[in-house]
Amino acid sequence: SVCNVPSGLNVLLITKNSAQLNWASTGATSYKVRYKKLTASTWTTVSTASTSVAINGLTANTNYEFQVMGICSSTSYSAYSVSKLFTTLAANNKRL
To answer: pTM of the predicted model, to two decimals?
Structure first.
């Protein structure tokens, strides 16, 4: 069976150095998430069994993109999704 490409990518709880990445379930058993600064050439990849992942160690006031791949089995996985962009908060941003 086809392993569907994740969609509905969304970003919550953005701070100056972290964010929570979410996406819609495709019925996959796990997901591979990759993210990078928009200007960077190399991705950071993390794996999760849920449909969200919190990432830390980001740079303030910076544009990022992330993509998600669904993994249905050891031999069945989707392509990476289209990129979702987000921007971290400025270092002096005081969120109430």
So the answer is: 0.90
